[in-house]
């Protein structure tokens, strides 16, 4: 006896069956990647809605991990050293995350 498996897609918006082989649309926004299954009409509506923004946007190649370096790391500064120096100077510095560029500039001037 033979067995045949059929994969069927349905729109995440309308629930309608999708006849296309690859209906999944992939996109990213604010650092989060998304995927959604859309009918041809829904895909067109999506593209029309974001067209004004895409017309002014810059395309970025590569993974988000390649673009997540902090200013202190990319400029060759040791974030721990900058934070320790700022605390010694009585300056307000976040315990985690991005070090403000002004603090890095002050650190550079002092060293």
Write a structural description.
The protein is of the alpha+beta class and 111 residues long. It has two domains: 9-65, Lsr2, dimerisation domain (Wheat Germ Agglutinin (Isolectin 2), domain 1, 2-Layer Sandwich), CATH 3.30.60.230; 69-110, Dihydrolipoamide Transferase (Irregular), CATH 4.10.320. Helices cover 35% and strands 14% of the residues. It has four helices and four strands. The strands form two sheets. A two-stranded antiparallel ribbon has the order 1-2. Strands 3-4 form a two-stranded antiparallel ribbon. A hairpin with a 6-residue loop joins strand 1 and strand 2 (17-18). The longest helix has 15 residues, at 40-54. It is elongated. The termini are far apart. Mean pLDDT is 83; it is low at 66-74.
Features:
2 domains; 35% helix; 111 residues; Wheat Germ Agglutinin (Isolectin 2), domain 1; two-stranded antiparallel sheet; two-stranded antiparallel ribbon; 4 helices; Dihydrolipoamide Transferase; alpha+beta; single chain
SSE map:
Layout: E1 9-10, E2 17-18, E3 24-29, E4 32-37, H1 40-54, H2 71-74, H3 79-88, H4 101-110
Q: Percentage of helical residues?
A: 25-40%
* Tally of DSSP β-strands: 4
Measured distance between first and last alpha carbons: 79 Å
Query: What is the annotated CATH architecture of the largest domain?
Result: 2-Layer Sandwich
From the alpha-carbon coordinates, what is the Rg to the nearest angstrom? 24 Å
**Main beta sheet: strand number and arrangement?**
2 strands, antiparallel
By DSSP (H or I, 4+ residues per run), the number of helices equals: 4
Approximately what portion of the residues adopt beta-strand conformation?
5-15%
Give me the side-by-side strand order of the main sheet: 1-2
CATH class of the largest domain: Alpha Beta
Low-confidence stretches: 66-74
SSE class:
alpha+beta
Order of helices and strands: EEEEHHHH
Number of domains: 2
The CATH superfamily of the largest domain appears as Lsr2, dimerisation domain
**CATH fold-level name of the largest domain:** Wheat Germ Agglutinin (Isolectin 2), domain 1
Mean pLDDT, rounded to whole units?
83
């Amino acid at each position: 006896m033979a067995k045949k498996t059929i994969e069927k897609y349905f729109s995440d918006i309308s629930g309608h069956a999708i006849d296309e082989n690859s209906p999944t649309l992939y996109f990213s926004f604010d650092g989060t990647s998304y995927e959604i299954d859309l009918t041809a009409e829904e895909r067109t509506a999506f593209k029309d809605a974001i067209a004004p923004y895409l017309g002014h946007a810059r395309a970025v190649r590569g993974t988000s991990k390649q673009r997540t370096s902090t200013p202190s790391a990319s400029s060759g500064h040791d974030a721990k050293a900058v934070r320790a120096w700022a605390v010694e100077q009585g300056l307000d510095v976040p315990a985690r995350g991005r070090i403000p560029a002004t603090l890095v500039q002050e650190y550079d001037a002092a060293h």
